[in-house]
Amino acid sequence: MNEKDICRIVVENLEKKHDLSDMAIKLWFENLSLEKLTPDTAYFSTDNNLKKSIIESKYIPYLKEDLKDILGFDVNVVVMSSEGSSFDAQIKELEKKKETEQLKEVAERLDAEDRNASNPDFVRVYDESESKKMSNIIVSRSLPNYSPEYTFDNFVVGSSNNIAYNMAHSVAERPAVVANPLFLYGSPGLGKTHLLYAITREIATRYPDFTIIYVKGEDFTNELIEALANKTSILFREKYRNADVLLLDDIQFIAGKEAIQEEFFHTYEALFESGKQIILTSDRLPKDIKSLAERLRSRFEHGIMIDIKPPDLELRVAIFKRKAQAFGMNIPNDVLMYLGENIKDNIRQIEGALKKMRALAYIQNSEICMEHAKTAVNDILTAKAAAITPDKIITYVSQKFGIAPEEIVGKRKTNEIAISRQVSIYLLRELTDMSYENVGKVFNRDHSTVVSAVKKIKELMDKDSSFEAQIEDMVKDMRSIGD
Ligand code: ADP
Ligand code: MG
User: What is the reported pTM?
Assistant: First the structure.
């Protein structure tokens, strides 16, 4: 029995079993054909969109039932119309869509399983309303998942990160003795946050009485802005000055804002003078954080500054191997080599690639192979380009300039608002593939406004080197968010 026979029987049954009139059969099913039958889907086609939509809205259950009678198993029914692209193309697209959906579902489920497997119980997320302390670690509120796998044991050491690793370890063993402040810097995704968590954990175990505060530069800034607005800066101060160890991750985010730096400076001095350990990270050296207050810069430079460099091939492959083991994946050596050669500058992408491959193998019910690695590498490199969105840029500029996002996309034209808007437009053009037209839409403006905003910012950068440095920092910040 071929597709043609099956289709004929199905249509006959519509008449016999489901009592469809001759008229209905003639109107809707005359040119129905079965293009393709897979174990889970029957792809029918007809010759126009109206028929397609009528069949879809009324007759799919009948078709399914009849197919089940003939085939003995359930299949999904898809109806295509020859008014669209070729059937082959339509089938391909539908199959691809189905696979993407399935893949997403599986990836989400596997992720959730990972999360459940690792549920730390000695860490709490800081909550101002909570008066009683439950543990000695206080973490940033934007970290609902305090990744318990970020330990020293799980940090793979190679020539690009061994000094950072050893120093972090020594500081965790003897806080405020070895290096204070400890300033770790390096590009995004190279393990700075991982090391900070590892330090946090290690100190919490060795010194159970210590109050340890881990906070991201961004959260510190937002928290302080809120505290100032709600007149709760005393509480804010108390919280931070109470720390035995303060870890501030991505310090570059506090640069530029006078009030924030001022507050941080006082916190810093108070802690430092009473012999508390301070650990900072950044994506660059203090001297390269352009709008960092001079007195903060000189404080940081007083400590020990250590960089983490991008991993070499050997380390990348070693990390792939280790993470694959942790995910319970068995990856052939040639595939490991391929991954190591292609995923280069960000270790976060290594995890992404492995998860993608795991999901692919899972839905195809097959062993991990080179094909999976190729798909994963390709997806990761494309996803990176799409990670920076207009919303993220506007939120960021809003924080930097202290102008509400509504104003940035709004109509008002005070100097400050106009500049924030132009900078946002410039960043969108610089950091995304969006056309002038589409950038314009974000701001309810036309193409020519976008062109002149970009021009304006470029001119300002040419004229004013400190403005130029500020914009360059912003581009860097956004790129690191994209990672
Ligand atoms: P950063 O803070 O520098 O941007 P992260 O610490 O967030 O980078 O690291 C990104 C991801 O890469 C994390 O999942 C982290 O566990 C992982 N990672 C980075 N370096 C290593 C390493 N040497 N060994 C194992 N995992 C690493
Ligand atoms: Mg980080």
Answer: 0.66
